[in-house]
């Protein structure tokens, strides 16, 4: 059974179609890159799949749970939103303990979960430091740890490397690879950085103006349009004269 399956998923805003007829499947351990120019529908797709927005047509399942049961889906997913904010005056450990308590864990379970997750994202040695002293990359990894607090089947990361320096990008991407490889979660990663897609994604979805233009592995997408690089493939699939 796929962990994530969308069939004809669509969302309109009045007359404007933000996502139109999106269909795809993803399996356990897949890292799916969600690509597309500005306004292509990436954030709308993530909002639909995380049950923040209702589809105007089509359907999807997460870990076999249909989209008409959003509360059950929310219990099985983790999300790092595009511009997550953090309480600067809390430590990373306190922030995660609080998040675990919100999921109904006991005080001692929450403390253990916070410690384990901080180690997992490479923040174990900064657990007690205030979040205001974390670098941007460290905050992103804390946000990823927060998204893992309920052991999700699917993790959605909206532009997790935006604004990070190369070392910060590398740390976030190796964390993403661990989530998929060791936890076996499915990761959906939206990004504008094609190099990182080539590095970590097992498959990709290229959207443009709400429609799926290509899907498959990097090699399959390049072959489909006869492009030498992912960059060339992306441009030929999304190029238009009105820019
Ligand atoms: N609340 C809204 N009301 C009306 N139109 C919207 C709304 N949210 C998004 N749209 C429109 O839907 C389309 C898709 O937007 P979306 O934010 O999903 O794209 P995106 O691929 O995430 O873009 P970016 O790369 O710039 O973040 C755009 O044309 C956008 O203007």
UniProtKB/TrEMBL annotation:
Recorded family membership: Belongs to the ABC transporter superfamily.
Residues spanning the signal sequence: none
SUPFAM superfamilies: P-loop containing nucleoside triphosphate hydrolases (SSF52540)
Entry annotated with the keyword Nucleotide-binding: yes
Native organism taxonomy: Bacteria, Bacillati, Actinomycetota, Actinomycetes, Propionibacteriales
Domain ABC transporter: start-end pairs: 4-234
The protein's name: ABC-2 type transport system ATP-binding protein
GO molecular function, one term: ATP binding
Keyword Zinc-finger: no
SMART domains found in the cross-reference section: AAA
Keyword field: ATP-binding, Nucleotide-binding, Transport
Pfam family, one: ABC_tran
InterPro entries per the UniProt record, alphabetical: AAA+_ATPase (IPR003593), ABC_transporter-like_ATP-bd (IPR003439), P-loop_NTPase (IPR027417)
């Amino acid at each position: 059974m796929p962990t994530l399956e969308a069939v004809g998923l669509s969302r309109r805003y009045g007359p404007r179609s933000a996502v139109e007829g999106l269909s795809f499947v993803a399996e356990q351990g897949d890292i799916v890159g969600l690509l597309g120019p500005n306004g292509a529908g990436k954030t709308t797709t993530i909002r639909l799949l995380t049950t923040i927005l209702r589809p105007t047509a089509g359907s999807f399942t997460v870990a076999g749970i249909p989209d008409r049961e959003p509360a059950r889906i929310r219990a099985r997913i983790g999300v790092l939103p595009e511009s997550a904010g953090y309480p600067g005056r809390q430590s990373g450990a306190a922030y995660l303990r609080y998040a675990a308590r919100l999921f109904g864990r006991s005080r001692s379970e929450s403390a253990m979960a916070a410690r384990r997750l901080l180690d997992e994202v490479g923040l174990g040695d900064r657990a007690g430091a205030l979040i205001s002293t974390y670098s941007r990359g460290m905050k992103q990894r804390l946000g990823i740890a927060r998204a893992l607090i309920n052991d999700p089947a699917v993790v959605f990361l909206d532009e997790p490397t935006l604004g990070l320096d190369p070392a910060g990008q590398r740390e976030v991407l190796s964390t993403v690879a661990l989530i998929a490889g060791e936890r076996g979660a499915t990761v959906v990663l939206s990004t504008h950085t094609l190099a990182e897609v080539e590095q970590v994604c097992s498959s990709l979805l290229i959207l443009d103006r709400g429609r799926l233009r290509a899907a498959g592995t990097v090699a399959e997408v390049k072959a489909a349009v006869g492009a030498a690089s992912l960059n060339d493939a992306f441009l030929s699939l999304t190029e238009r004269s009105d820019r």
